[in-house]
Amino acid sequence: MITSPLPIVTRIKGAGRRFLVVGLEAVQSYTTWSFFMTLKAAVFLLHEASLRFPTIEAKQYTYFSGYAGFAGAALGIKTLAHQLQDSSSKLPSVETFTDGRGYYLNEEALVSQIREDLAKAEKVLGRKPTALVLGALGRCGKGAVDLFLKAGMPDENITRWDLNETKDRDGPYEETAKADVFLNAIYLSKPIPPFINQELLAKKGRNLAVVIDDPTVPVEIKDDQNNLPLSVISIDHLPSMLPREASEAFSEGLKESLLTLKDRKTSRVWADAEKLFHEKVATLPEELRTKSV
User: Fold this and answer.
1) Alpha-carbon radius of gyration of the chain
2) How far apart are CA 272 and CA 275, in angstroms?
3) What 8-state DSSP symbol labels residue 242?
4) What digits encode the pLDDT tens for the residues 234-248?
5) 83-88: Cβ within 8 A, 24+ apart
6) Residue 166, beta-bridge partner list
7) Which residue of 8, 26, 127, 167 is most buried, as measured by CB atoms within 10 A?
8) Helices 139-151 & 107-125 angle (0-180, nearest 10)
9) Is this prediction's pTM over 0.85?
10) How many Å apart are CA 135 and CA 183, to the nearest integer?
């Protein structure tokens, strides 16, 4: 499946709480793998998930993840500002604040707008907003931290967690409820205890207003606990908000592999891509396995 170029905003109403599902990472399943490029001599499957989470010596050959974190953090601040000013309405679509385009012309334009959003949130809160980034040392996490800093969030207001902060303790984590924005930038290959649960959401004094994660977010968010608004951002193609920068970064990462295309039978990345292609084709119904593309 090739996703649409623009984020889709869905609204779910709960008992007293409105959930804004805006979305972040792709579900790692059949629905996300797709043909990535067609070459004159051959067709190779370069699945987005395999590029983000490959098994070949833990090496990523190319990636969008940095801009996924960057754009996710930007929408997190924008959602927070909107929620603080008008908790009764949903965040408008990306088109409404990009002159109808659905994307930003460049990173500078996005950062400039998000700085204004952060200032609006600060005015309502009476303090600078805070954020907690889980997986802060990875590409996605670093992209998120980069946006928060460029938007004007003080360094000390950004809590950076990675393996060292979580390896010896399971969730839920009380720290997540203390931040205004929580962004999860780690990939989960197996179920784990939730980062946030109903008990944490029900506690008085909760600051958490925006959760940014993928559709498989390990967060128990089911119904209203204390009538405080909470938004969940869950989009699988956030880099499309910055098409130029995201494409340039992805292309730069892909260049090394393209230069080895002439040796595709022996090149590790192409051999692995072809193997993955045949594995995925084998999961298709029989009548689709030989369909022309």
Assistant:
1) 20
2) 5
3) S
4) 876 788 899 999 888
5) 83/209, 83/210, 83/229, 83/231, 84/120, 84/121, 84/124, 84/125, 84/209, 85/120, 85/124, 87/18, 87/229
6) none
7) 26
8) 70
9) no
10) 9
